[in-house]
Design goal:
The chain is an alpha+beta fold and 499 residues long.
């Protein structure tokens, strides 16, 4: 008998919860087959079978909290599944298998690989029903994860049987349906005449139109005919851009409709969408940060004239020499590191009744993605040059947007920088990335009249915001820290001369 153990969960992750068992007691399993999924506050993990045999025991139910090394269950090696175990499954599968009985062997529809570190996804809306005929490579369903949406197409032509319903959680390799390579769909079609007749009043896409859920929503809300849409996507699929372009083309005909109230009644005024796992984690961590730390924000403004002039003078030579553009983030990172050297409390954290002062400078760089905000960490920023900082930030930003960040790249930061100015923010109060004690908010650069040596001059000004944990950082230290950053940015030579 081989025990199924909870694996190591990653740095600073002490426990996980059982999300779902993919097998029941008595089921036959193969070595390395996924048996159970674990969820932590950062990642989802898969636990596989340690050997071939039969799942003989489940010691932790779905929703239970476990720690590394916990025995989740056991596999009896070399056994065979009991005769009673497959009986219910066979009975339940009998109606679904009916369409396939009239034709050739069924071809499984499996969940594809969904990207590095993506352990599961959710079934979107099936574009076909069980019993429908489908063509090879026809789009059937989209699987949504916290990072990407993956399209699943028909592996063969035939009759579709669905085994995973809309909204179900699935893992890579899981079978979500099958296609009978040959056979008629008459029997399944006859079983649902009421549903078919109920939908005759709305425009339906022909079999040749491949509509993803996003496209289907645009088509339905704007009463478009899929047959009239041009398809520019791969495999003849209609893209969302195609549907939106059709709306614009149909716009001149809109004045003919004198009463806008009728189509409005067909459109939902609200839409309920389940939060992705990434968004749930972001929401929980930000609220925990507010509830834990005594957060306070202090503001200042910096004249960006000298940094902008230095950047404009050397940006072309810098890019030719180092192969990366010279941005503002490298100047801010250098200034932050030097200020952290001088005010170590801002680079520390509280652990119970102890204060941990960090002698390393790993700077978190907040990156906005389509799926939410992530904070990858630039390691040992104090020993990096401006070029090294720019290359590191560019690599982390690309990995974040591609959904390819690893857990190691997102843990262990000592201070965070967030740049809302890229989106036009003039001023904000950033929330701490706990357990860190400080976060610097950068904002938009705006030309403003300033008093310079008794004269009014137009200067490129940026507001800076430092949010800090008042339990460990005093107001004097916070203000001194922010003023130091202001001095280093307004006179970049200070950083070179260590002044």
């Amino acid at each position: 008998m081989a025990d199924i153990l909870t694996p190591a969960l990653g740095e600073s992750v002490a426990e996980a919860s059982i999300a779902k068992w993919t097998k029941k007691v008595g089921d036959a399993v193969k070595k390395d087959e996924v048996l159970v999924e674990l969820e932590t506050d950062k990642v989802s993990l898969e636990v596989v079978a340690p050997a071939d045999g039969v799942l003989s025991a489940i010691n932790a139910d779905e929703g239970d909290t476990v720690v590394p090394g916990t025995v989740l269950g056991a596999v009896t090696e070399g056994g065979a599944a009991s005769a009673s175990a497959p009986a219910p499954a066979a009975a339940a599968a009998a109606p679904a298998a009916a369409p396939a009985a009239s034709g050739g062997a069924a071809v499984d529809i499996a969940v594809p690989t969904m990207g590095e570190s993506v352990a599961e996804g959710s079934i979107g809306t099936w574009l076909k029903k069980s019993g429908d005929k489908v063509a090879k490579d026809e789009l059937l369903v989209e699987i949504e994860t916290d990072k990407v949406a993956v399209e699943v197409s028909a592996p063969a032509a035939g009759v579709l049987t669905i085994t995973a319903s809309d909204g179900a959680t699935v893992t890579p390799g899981q079978v979500i349906g099958s296609i009978a390579a040959s056979g008629a769909a008459a029997a399944p079609a006859a079983a649902v005449p009421a549903a078919a007749s109920a939908n005759t009043g709305s425009a339906q896409a022909p079999a040749s139109a491949h509509l993803s859920p996003a496209v289907q929503r645009v088509v339905s809300e704007n009463n478009l005919n899929p047959a009239s849409l041009s398809a520019s996507g791969p495999k003849g699929n209609i893209t969302k851009a195609d549907a939106i372009a059709a709306i614009g083309a149909a716009a001149p005909a809109a004045p003919k409709a004198a009463a806008p109230a009728a189509p409005r009644a067909d459109q939902p005024r609200e839409e309920r969408v389940k939060m992705t796992r990434l968004r749930q984690t972001i929401a929980r961590r930000l609220k925990e940060s507010q509830n834990t730390a005594a957060q306070l924000t202090t503001f200042n403004e910096v004249d960006m004239t000298n940094v902008m002039a230095l950047r404009a003078q050397y940006k072309e030579v810098f890019e030719k020499r180092h192969g990366v553009k010279l941005g503002f983030m490298s100047f801010f990172t250098k200034a932050v590191v030097q200020a952290l050297h001088e005010i170590p409390a801002v680079n520390a954290e509280i652990d119970g009744t102890d204060i941990i002062y960090k002698n390393h400078y790993d700077i978190g760089i907040a990156v906005g993605t389509d799926k939410g905000l992530v904070v990858p960490v630039l390691r040992d920023a104090d020993v990096l040059s401006l070029a090294g900082i720019e290359k590191g930030i560019a690599a982390l930003g690309k990995a974040a947007r591609d959904g390819a960040l690893t857990m190691d790249q997102m843990q262990g930061g000592t201070f965070t920088i967030t740049n809302g100015g890229t989106y036009g923010s003039l001023m904000s109060t950033p929330i701490l990335n706990t357990p860190q004690s400080g976060i610097l908010g950068m904002h938009n650069i705006v030309q403003r009249p300033m008093a310079v040596n008794g004269e009014v001059k137009i200067r490129p000004m940026m507001y800076l915001a430092l949010s800090y944990d008042h339990r460990i950082v005093d107001g004097k230290e916070a203000v001194t820290f922010l003023v130091r950053i202001k001095e280093l940015l307004e006179d970049p030579a200070r950083a070179l001369l260590d002044l």
